[in-house]
């Protein structure tokens, strides 16, 4: 689902932003509790606006390409990935909420975590583990 590239002056900026987002995606693959997929999805969008060749390159990556295609096709997440995401959110909120000095901030942080878990469990479609839409 690629878009036609932006006018010439903005194209290099879209490509540069795509690479920055890819870097964040790689960090997300390496760091527990830091999401990776969302950054790759955003990078693919930037590449589609800047240079479709880079979008094609990203989509050809073994794991990342499948995740992006599945997202674009509306196939959702495997059940195990949903459990892992919810567990990471819960642990991140649980370990960090005590570091927020203001009660209102703590409550807000817990609500943000709860909203994330609810979004994943209620709005993101579930597909069987190990099945890709590619």
TrEMBL record:
Pfam families: DUF454. InterPro entries: DUF454. The chain crosses the membrane at residues 12-31, 103-121. The keyword Transmembrane applies. Keywords: Membrane, Transmembrane, Transmembrane helix. This is YbaN family protein.
């Amino acid at each position: 689902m690629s878009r036609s590239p932006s006018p010439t002056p903005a194209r290099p900026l879209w490509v540069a932003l795509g690479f920055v987002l890819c870097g964040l995606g790689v960090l997300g693959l390496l760091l527990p509790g830091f999401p990776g997929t969302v950054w790759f999805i955003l990078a693919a969008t930037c590449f589609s606006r800047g240079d479709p060749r880079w979008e094609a390159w990203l989509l050809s990556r073994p794991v990342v390409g499948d995740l992006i295609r599945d997202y674009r096709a509306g196939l959702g997440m495997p059940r195990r990935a949903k459990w892992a995401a919810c567990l990471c959110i819960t642990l991140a909120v649980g370990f960090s909420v005590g570091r927020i000095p203001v009660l209102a901030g703590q409550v807000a942080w817990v609500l943000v975590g709860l909203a994330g878990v609810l979004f994943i469990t209620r709005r993101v479609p579930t597909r069987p583990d190990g099945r890709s839409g590619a």
